[in-house]
Amino acid sequence: MTTVRHPSDPASGALEKTSLKELARHLGLSPTTVSRVLNNSAGVDRISAETQQRVRAAAASMNYEANSLARSLRSKHSKTIGVIVPEISEGYSTTVLGGIEEILLLSGFFYFVVSHRHRANLLSEYSSMLIARAVEGIIAVDSILDHALPVPVVAVSGHVRNPSIVNIELDHNLAARYALEHLQRLGHKKIAFIKGQSFSSDTQARWRSISKVAAEIGIEINPRLVVQLEGIGLGSEPGRAATIRLLERDLPFTAIFAFNDLTAIGAITVLREAGIAVPSQVSVIGFDDIHSAATNNPPLTTVRQPLQEMGRIAATTLLQMIDADQSNWPHQPIRVLPNFIERQSTAKAAAGKLSARPPASASAAD
């Protein structure tokens, strides 16, 4: 899927643009003369002031707009950025994209957005296609680019070390500490974990941090209470399927720490269908703090990634890299800090053994 946007897209009903040839024909001048006046290029001083004024007045009245792309390609500055995302749907990618868009629109940059749905062949092809379209840089959002490109690259949640890539990274150690210490204070000892899909760029880094912090504060991780998201389904469905697999293991737990908010929302739905109350029987913590986290039932306790700010940082950094010599690019990842948002999906650990079965209607289907 490809989306193309530009800050100066005309509103519906706008006047049709006039071409350079049409404008020249109307004025009875050569296209070269008209072009020199409008672009203030070499030789314009030999054109009379009266003619220059007439050209500019006609251009304004006839809604002429120069071919900025052709001009920019000649100058080797296309003012175009490529943005690569896994998908365009509610959650992580769209929130980051909002921050990217904000900076690029303010800077007058045109941009392509391409989504690869975690297909490795598309991810490779898209970077080549964007380069062919003369982008000056690429922002990869939760998309692993592990090869050098001839343009600067900023990766949001990127963990590949490459001299041509600057990574925007969350402090996952702090994020894990916020969540696990919160559950520990509430008395939770039997905690289930839903890991991210294997293709997500954050999965390994976050799990390393969870394991590290759990060992430091004395929380034992039972491998049988760890499940992983599977497939490339959108929304909360992967979280639903993972929670069903967790319940089928018939082991007691009092809390779930989910890979992201959509997973947590799916988990809460399955728990409710299985007759398990959240949070009085099982607490649930998400990750990201997407818009629907606050309006979920119950409102979701979550680790907040500053997603929109990460998008703004990525776009600002890329524009600085475009304007700077490669030796002046950042050589270390740019680290951002999480916050912890406590809402109503967590409570003190329930006493007694959890007794529940996955909902019959969902188990077979997933």
What does this structure look like?
With 366 residues, the chain is of the alpha/beta class. The protein folds into three domains: 18-62; 80-171 and 307-336, 3-Layer(aba) Sandwich (Rossmann fold); 172-306 and 341-363, Rossmann fold (3-Layer(aba) Sandwich). It has twelve helices and 13 strands. The model is unreliable at 1-15 and 362-366 (pLDDT under 50).
Distance between the termini: 27 Å
Could you describe the largest sheet, including whether it forms a barrel?
Answer: 7 strands, mixed
**% residues in beta strands:** 15-25%
Shape: elongated
> Poorly predicted ranges (pLDDT <50, ≥5 residues)?
1-15, 362-366
Helical region count?
Answer: 12
Q: In which range does the helix fraction lie?
A: 25-40%
Could you give the order of strands across the largest sheet?
Answer: 1-3-2-4-5-6-12
CATH homologous superfamily (4th level) name of the largest domain:
Response regulator
* The CATH top-level class label of the largest domain: Alpha Beta
Order of helices and strands: EHHHHEHEHEEEHEHEHEHEEHEEH
User: What CATH architecture label of the largest domain applies?
Assistant: 3-Layer(aba) Sandwich
What is the number of strand segments? 13
Structural class: alpha/beta
User: What is the oligomer described by this structure?
Assistant: single chain
Number of domains: 3
Mean pLDDT: 85
> What name is given to the CATH topology of the largest domain?
Rossmann fold
Give the helix/strand layout:
Elements: E1 2-5, H1 20-27, H2 31-39, H3 49-61, H4 68-74, E2 80-85, H5 92-106, E3 110-115, H6 120-132, E4 137-141, E5 153-156, E6 165-170, H7 172-185, E7 191-195, H8 203-217, E8 226-228, H9 237-248, E9 255-258, H10 261-273, E10 283-288, E11 301-304, H11 307-323, E12 334-336, E13 339-341, H12 360-363
Parallel strand pairs: 2-3, 2-4, 4-5, 5-6, 6-12, 7-8, 7-9, 9-10, 10-11
Antiparallel strand pairs: 1-3, 11-13
Helix pairs in contact: 1-2, 5-11, 7-8, 9-10
